[in-house]
Amino acid sequence: MPGENSADSGQVVSEEGTELDKKRLDILTGKLKEKNLLNRGCVFCGEKDMVILGYKDEYPVILLNPPTKYYEAYAMACSNCGFVHTFMGEIIEGNGNG
Ligand SMILES: [Zn+2]
Q: Per the structure, how many domains does the chain have?
């Protein structure tokens, strides 16, 4: 029976290491883990190590046109090739309040 096996797993890290970074990191990795996708790796090169994007209370969004409206997002970059994986915040946070 498979348990909590973390062997052969990559990691998603926060570059800045601020409180909000860590909170968002936990939310994103928690959701990916829940979906069994955390160790899937980069869709482009397969690298397992990622860096979540953000700085203090600033984080990526998906802009609409005109850019006064946006979707909140989570993004992580592959530490090998730099491919950026972007996730809809509403789905990652699991609260469909919109
Ligand atoms: Zn990659």
A: 1
